[in-house]
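Incident log entry.

Two folding requests arrived from the same account within the same minute. Monitoring flagged them as a possible duplicate submission, but the sequences differ. Recording both here for audit purposes.

Request one:
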Amino acid sequence: MSAFYVLVFTAILITYRVVRGPTLPDRIVGLNTITTKVVVIIAVVSVIRGEYYLVDLAIVLLMVNAVGGLILAKYMERRASHD
């Protein structure tokens, strides 16, 4: 259970980078990190509670996170080429 608290605490710390990040890439990396931590939290909670269907939810969230990261990277690439 202490792993749960460590993950939540570090996700809260990373929230500072998302809110106050000096650049857009810093914010995107922070948001992806928080989402990955949420996936791990869901997996840990599902194992502790024995509700393994939540692992499916975590996998879907991880896939959405990966696709979202790719979309944002493509957006930043296009924005950089127009400048």
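Request two (distinct sequence, not a duplicate):
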Amino acid sequence: MQVFATFDHSAYLELAIRKLEQDGFSDIFAVPLDSRQEEPKLFDTIHRSDGISLINKGLFLAVIFSVIGASRGFILEWGPIYWGLIGAGGGFLLGFFTDLIIIKAKNRKKKLRKSKQSEVVLIVDCKDEDGSKVEKILWNYTAIGVAKVK
């Protein structure tokens, strides 16, 4: 049986490995995961989306500003159509750049908080009857997740 567990890279991982070795488990394999080095892409493609949209606020403000521009356009020189289009374009740009600034600020905060190291996957080979004992030890030493495979 194999028991898989994920840990934060901390002293608890070392304590869990030490406890497993003291209890007679010698087939222990720890693999640290690499952290992402490159910046995530800002614009989505057809095949990959991160769920962040930059045009929602832009379209909302475009509608509002085009209505205001068209209604004011009746008393302005160029007329309601031109002022409606100008309002729509200005509202869209305002909303787009607002979303862009907010997302950049959130990514900067995440990057500052992300100074910790990545997780570690711990694999322990054991007999079927020792699986629950290994699982209990791993949970006691703050494992993030544990899975058993026969």
